[in-house]
Design brief:
25 helices; alpha+beta; 821 residues
Length: 821
C-alpha cells in the first residue's frame, strides 16, 4: 500500500512540474537557512565543551565597581594569585596562568624564533606546566605530563611545526628565541607538537612556553601583586567542590593582599567564570587577550534560530496555500477514491506521502544550497564554519525530525479538508475548497507581514550604522596611522627621536604620542575633584603637546597645550565640554582638578592638581553605545620614553609611501627584530561595531530569504488564479479590457494584502528597532520614512513578481481561452 502511495506521489510530482519546483525550491531555501543556523548554533554553543573537565574549569575574574557609574569586570589578575590560591584554597585540583605578549588589545606580540637559517615571528603563550593536563589539547608528539616541566621546553602547534621543520621530526630540535625585553638569545628544546586547536576553542596558540621564563621573555615577575593585567588564571575544581566555597576563599585572598594591589577591599572582588561561558560573556573588559578569543554576543544565535524558523514556516505556508489552490483539480480524485472504499486515514496517508517525498527532496536540495552558501554566511557572521557537523549523529536526527515535521506540517491543512469532504458533494460539484481558504489568505498576509517587518528592520539598521560611521566624533579619524610603540625600549628620548624623524617627512601632517592605548576600552578612569569640592568620575588621557593638532580637535575655549610655555611644570590640562558641564563651571579657564592615587602620581607636576587652560569640543574615543564621558587631556611627563601608541596623520594619497618611510625609521630606533605594528584609526573605531554589523548582515540575509519565498508563493498563487480565471480573462478581453485592466484586476488582491501586511508589520518592527537602538547612546530617530520606504519596496517586489504571470495572461489571445466554449 505504501509503495502505491509513493508511486502516486511521484507521478503527481512529475505531472505538475512548476508547482513542485516552486514548493521544493521554497522549502529548500528554508531548510538551507535552518542548516546554516544549526551550524552556527552548534559552533557557538559547543565552545570549549570539548575539554574533558570543561564543567569544572573556571577563570578568575576581577570585578571593580566604579564611582557613581557601573563598574567593570576584568579577566586579568596579578601573577602571584595562582600560587596563593593553590596554597590557601582547598578543592582546587589545578591552577594555571596564561600570559601572552605585551601587544595592545588589538593584536598579539610576536617573538623572534630562529632555526638554522630560518628566522620567524610567531605569536606565543606563556603557561604553567599543568596547562596540557588541565586543557584537552592532545599532543601529536610528546608527553603532555612533562612537555612543559623543563624551563627551556617549547610546545608547537602542528601548523607551526610543519612551517619550521617541514617533514622532519621536531621533537628534540633546538630553537633560538630572542627576549622581547632584553633581546638576549636563549635555546629552547621542542618537547611536544599539539594537534590542531579546534576553531571553537576560546584559547588559541601556536607556541607554548613555560612560565619559568616569564622574566626572560617579557621582563615580568611571576609573583607580582601590584599589577593586575599580567595574566589570566584558570582553576580546575575538585569533583564535588562548590563554587561559592572557592569564591569565599578568593575573598580571603583579596582581603589579605589588597594593600599590595593598591585597591581598597570594597573596590575589588574575585569571581569565578565557567570556561564554557568565556565565549558569551560580552560585559568583560579585556585589554590583554592572553591567547583568548574575544567574546561574541549570544543574541546573534538566538536571533538566527527565530529567523530561520520564520523563514521555514513561510516556505511551508507556500506549500499549504498552493495545495489548497490546487484542490479543485484533485477533488474528483478524492471523491472517486472514497466511492471505491478509501477511508479517511488512507487519503491522509496519500497526501502525507506526497508531502514527505517533497520534504525529502527539499532537505537534500537545501543541504546543497547550505554548502554553497556557507562561504557567504561565514562572511556575514565573521566565523569559519564547516559543513561537516551537519553529518554528525545529532545533526542527522535533527534533519530526520525536520523532514518529518515539515512533511506533516505542510500536508495537515489541505489533507484534512480533502479527506473530510463528502464524496457526493465532490462528484456533484458542490464542494469548492476555494471558498474555505480564509486561512490561506491569512497565511499569505502573515508572509507579507514578516517580509515587510524584516525589510523595515534592515533599513533602520543600515541607517543607524551609517549614522554611526558618519557622526562627527569631535576629531578627524581619517588618514591616521596608529603605531604600537609598546615594544620600544624605555630609554630616554627613544620615542621622541622617532617622532622628530617622522614629522620631517613631507607626507606627514602631524604626529603625537599617547602614554596608554587611546582606544583601550579599559582605561585608568578616576575621580577628579573641583575647587568647590564637586566630584566627577572622568577619563584622563596622557598626551603630548601635538595631540589636539594631530587629531584635529577643536579648542572651543582658552588655548591648546603649548610646549613654549610652562605647561609641563604647572600641570596644565584641557577639559572636554562634558567635564565643564558636570563640574558646573561657568568659566572653566583657570579651574583645577585634583587627583589622588595612581593618576596623581602620573601628572607632570608633583601636587596631583591639573590646571585647566582650555576646553576642547566633546570627542568620542569610546563606542557610541556609550554617552560621552567627562575627560581631561593631561601632559605625559615621560613623553620621551613612555608611550604605548604613536599617531601619525598623513595625506590621503600618500599612505603607502608614508608607511614604508615610517617602518624604515622604526627599524633604526627599535631593537633588532622588533616588528612594526600599525593599524588605521578609522578601522579601529569601525571594529567597535563589528557585532552590530554582523547582526545587521544576518537580518539582511534573512530578509532576502523571506522576501524571495514570499514572492515564490505569490508567483504560484497567481499562476493558479490565472488558470482558474482563464475564461473570465478571455471574455473581458473580448469585451474590450486592456492589458492594464487585466493586470490590475489580477494584482489588486495581492496589493491589498501587502498594504494590510505593512500595517500589521510596522508596530512589530517599531518595537524591535526601538529596543535595538537602545544599545546606542547616539542614535537616529525612528521616522515614518523608513516604514514607508520598506513598505514600498515590499509592494514593488511582490507586484513585480505577480506581474510576470498577470502580464502573460493579459497578453494571451482570448481565442485560445474561448475556443471550446
Amino acid at each position: 500500500m505504501f509503495r502505491n502511495y509513493l508511486i502516486v506521489a511521484y507521478r503527481n510530482l512529475v505531472r505538475h512540474k512548476a508547482y513542485s519546483a516552486i514548493n521544493i525550491l521554497g522549502l529548500a531555501i528554508g531548510i538551507a537557512f535552518c542548516a546554516l543556523t544549526y551550524l552556527y548554533v552548534h559552533y557557538e554553543w559547543t565552545y570549549d565543551a570539548f575539554h574533558n573537565h570543561a564543567d569544572r574549569i573556571y577563570r578568575v575574574n576581577i570585578e571593580v565597581p566604579g564611582p557613581e557609574r557601573k563598574g567593570y569586570s576584568l579577566p586579568h589578575v596579578p601573577t602571584a594569585l595562582r600560587d596563593e590560591l593553590l596554597r590557601t584554597v582547598t578543592d582546587v585540583d589545578r591552577a594555571v596562568r596564561l600570559t601572552a605578549g605585551r601587544g595592545s588589545d588589538r593584536e598579539d606580540r610576536e617573538i623572534q624564533v630562529a632555526y638554522g637559517e630560518q628566522v620567524l615571528k610567531l605569536p606565543f603563550l606563556i603557561v604553567d606546566p599543568g596547562f596540557l593536563r588541565m586543557f584537552s589539547f592532545p599532543l601529536r608528539a610528546g608527553d603532555p605530563d612533562v612537555a612543559l616541566k623543563n624551563p627551556h621546553s617549547v610546545v608547537l602547534s602542528t601548523e607551526t611545526a610543519t612551517r619550521i621543520f617541514g617533514n622532519e621530526d621536531p621533537v628534540g630540535k633546538q630553537l633560538t628565541l630572542r627576549s622581547l625585553w632584553s633581546h638576549d638569545l636563549a635555546e629552547f628544546t621542542v618537547t611536544g607538537v599539539a594537534e590542531p586547536v579546534p576553531d571553537n576553542s576560546s584559547i588559541q596558540f601556536e607556541m607554548l612556553l613555560p612560565y619559568q621564563h616569564l622574566w626572560f621573555l617579557l621582563h615580568l615577575e611571576s609573583d607580582d601583586w601590584e599589577r593586575i593585567a599580567r595574566c589570566d588564571t584558570y582553576i580546575q575544581l575538585s569533583q564535588d567542590a562548590e563554587v561559592t566555597d572557592i569564591e569565599s576563599g578568593l575573598r580571603s585572598i583579596a582581603k589579605a593582599n589588597m594593600l599590595r594591589l593598591k585597591i581598597s577591599e570594597d573596590k575589588l572582588q574575585l569571581r569565578l567564570q565557567p570556561l564554557t561561558d568565556l565565549r558569551h560573556r560580552v560585559d568583560l573588559v579585556e585589554f590583554r587577550n592572553h591567547g583568548v578569543k574575544p567574546p561574541r554576543d549570544p543574541m546573534t544565535g538566538y536571533g538566527l534560530v527565530c529567523l530561520s524558523a520564520l523563514v521555514l514556516v513561510m516556505a511551508s505556508i507556500n506549500y499549504v496555500n498552493l495545495a489548497v489552490g490546487r484542490m479543485v483539480t484533485r477533488t474528483k480524485e478524492s471523491g472517486i477514491r472514497k466511492v471505491v472504499g478509501a477511508l479517511r486515514f488512507q487519503l491522509l496517508w496519500q497526501y502525507l506521502s506526497e508531502s514527505l517525498l517533497m520534504s525529502i527532496l527539499a532537505v537534500g536540495l537545501g543541504l546543497v544550497f547550505a554548502e554553497h552558501a556557507l562561504p557567504f554566511f561565514n562572511g556575514f557572521t565573521h566565523e569559519s564554519l564547516s559543513i561537516d557537523p551537519i553529518f554528525s549523529r545529532t545533526a542527522l536526527v535533527f534533519l530526520v525530525i525536520l523532514t518529518l515535521g515539515v512533511g506533516i506540517l505542510i500536508c495537515s491543512y489541505p489533507g484534512l479538508i480533502l479527506s473530510a469532504a463528502h464524496p457526493v458533494h465532490i462528484l456533484t460539484g458542490r464542494f469548492n475548497p476555494s471558498n474555505r481558504n480564509l486561512l490561506g489568505r491569512v497565511l499569505v498576509l502573515g508572509q507579507f507581514a514578516v517580509s515587510s517587518a524584516l525589510v523595515v528592520c534592515t533599513l533602520i539598521m543600515a541607517f543607524q550604522l551609517r549614522f554611526v560611521r558618519e557622526k562627527d566624533l569631535g576629531f578627524n579619524k581619517e588618514s591616521v596611522i596608529s603605531i604600537n610603540a609598546d615594544g620600544l625600549p624605555e630609554r630616554p628620548g627613544g620615542r621622541r627621536v622617532l617622532k622628530d624623524r617622522y614629522v620631517q617627512h613631507r607626507t606627514v601632517i602631524g604626529c603625537t604620542t599617547v602614554r596608554y592605548g587611546l582606544l583601550d576600552e579599559w582605561y585608568d578612569s578616576g575621580e577628579g575633584r573641583g575647587e568647590q569640592g564637586q566630584s566627577v568620575d572622568l577619563r584622563p588621557y596622557f598626551v603630548d603637546f601635538d595631540f589636539v593638532k594631530t587629531l584635529e580637535m577643536k579648542v572651543v575655549s582658552g588655548r591648546d597645550l603649548d610646549s613654549g610655555t610652562n605647561d609641563m611644570a604647572q600641570g596644565s590640562a584641557l577639559a572636554n565640554e562634558e567635564l565643564v558641564r558636570q563640574m558646573g563651571w561657568d568659566d572653566p579657564i583657570g579651574q583645577t582638578v585634583t587627583f589622588q592615587g595612581s593618576i596623581a602620581g602620573l601628572l607632570s607636576n608633583s601636587d596631583g592638581v591639573a590646571r585647566i587652560v582650555g576646553v576642547v569640543r566633546d570627542f568620542h574615543l569610546t563606542p557610541l553605545q556609550q554617552s560621552v564621558q567627562p575627560a581631561v587631556l593631561l601632559l605625559n611627563p615621560s613623553i620621551g620614553y613612555e608611550a604605548e601608541e604613536i599617531f601619525v596623520r598623513v595625506g590621503p594619497r600618500d599612505v603607502d609611501e608614508t608607511l614604508k618611510f615610517l617602518e624604515a625609521e622604526w627599524k633604526k630606533i627599535a631593537p633588532s627584530g622588533e616588528p612594526f605594528y600599525f593599524t588605521f584609526l578609522d578601522e579601529d573605531i569601525e571594529n567597535y561595531y563589528q557585532d552590530f554589523v554582523s547582526w545587521s548582515n544576518v537580518i539582511g540575509f534573512s530578509t532576502v530569504f523571506a522576501v524571495f519565498i514570499a514572492c515564490l508563493g505569490a508567483f504560484g498563487l497567481t499562476a493558479l488564479a490565472v488558470a482558474r480565471r482563464t475564461k473570465e480573462i478571455g471574455i473581458r478581453k473580448t469585451m474590450g479590457a486592456t492589458v492594464l485592466n487585466i493586470v490590475s484586476l489580477l494584482s489588486r488582491e495581492f496589493a491589498l494584502l501587502v498594504l494590510i501586511a505593512n500595517l500589521c508589520a510596522w508596530p512589530v518592527a517599531y518595537v524591535a528597532m526601538h529596543r535595538w537602538l537602545q544599545n546606542f547612546a547616539y542614535r537616529i530617530e525612528i521616522t515614518a520614512g523608513g516604514f514607508l520606504l520598506g513598505g514600498l519596496l515590499t509592494l514593488l517586489v511582490v507586484i513585480g513578481t505577480v506581474s510576470i504571470q498577470t502580464t502573460r495572461a493579459a497578453r494571451a489571445n482570448p481565442v485560445e481561452a474561448l475556443r471550446y466554449e
